[in-house]
Amino acid sequence: MAKVPISGGQAFPTSRNLAVYYGKAQNTDSPSLYDLCTNSNVDMIVMGFVRQLNGPTALPSFGFTRYCKTPASCTDKTRVSCSDMAANITFCQSMGKKVLISLGGSVSNLTLDSVSDAHEAASILWNVFGAGANSTALRPFGNVAVDGFDFDFESGADTTYMDTLASSLQSYFRSSSPERYVSAAPLCANNTVLPYGLYANANFVWPRFYNAKACCFGSKGFNKSVSTWYSYLNSINSDLGPTYPRVYLGGLSFNNSNSGFMEPDAFVNATFTGRRLVQSKFGGVSLWEGTDGLVTKNAQGRDFLNVTKAGLLGDI
Prior knowledge:
eight-stranded parallel barrel, globular
């Protein structure tokens, strides 16, 4: 029986979107979410990271607490107040930008032991960060709800039941408005780090074409890797409909002394090639990291985000 498409989110129908990560800047002393909110080049902001789902009192532990305050009367580290960040999220959303929270990162403990665990994790995420009505006293952003969740796992991570978690989150999304989204950031060298069923429930997939010499931007294997990813994701029988998942090219916005960084203009030229290979499933570009991209500039003084967005718009 053919699957009946469910609402997959129509706020990003084009192939010209720029998504950026936020919260782990390398070259910016005071990274500002507000700076990304006011930047016309940015369409989507992904905050990192939720690092533990089975943390103290079974609530998620997250890595952006340096932007928050812990009540003096509260010993539970998950009960933090992020009122300034909540205000910035609201402002971002008022500017038409989507704000997601990423699960994982380089150091995390997000192991799920069963389908039941996955459903419970979805409930916790929905009620702590999403539009859920439970656990209101424990919500770091108060009544502000994010626009979805991103899955970012390194090689070797146990991602069993993450497909159930993604599917369960999509079920919550269908019960509320506005549209919300699931994204995934697999390593370019390995499409099996995340289970097939997660891709079937992802609105956006941005393989990370960096920190991997065999398939990164600028490598001999880049074009082949992009083509392989397109073929694989195009074969996914998506629960969200035939146009999903949208494929983004994940790149670096700063030189981290590893593999995959290209100067802004060279990077844009490489995305042109990738865009042709991905064809109609192309959704845009994702960058690690947004605020670092504001300080990485080309010879003309244009920052990485501006040059990348101009390339997506065909205005360079």
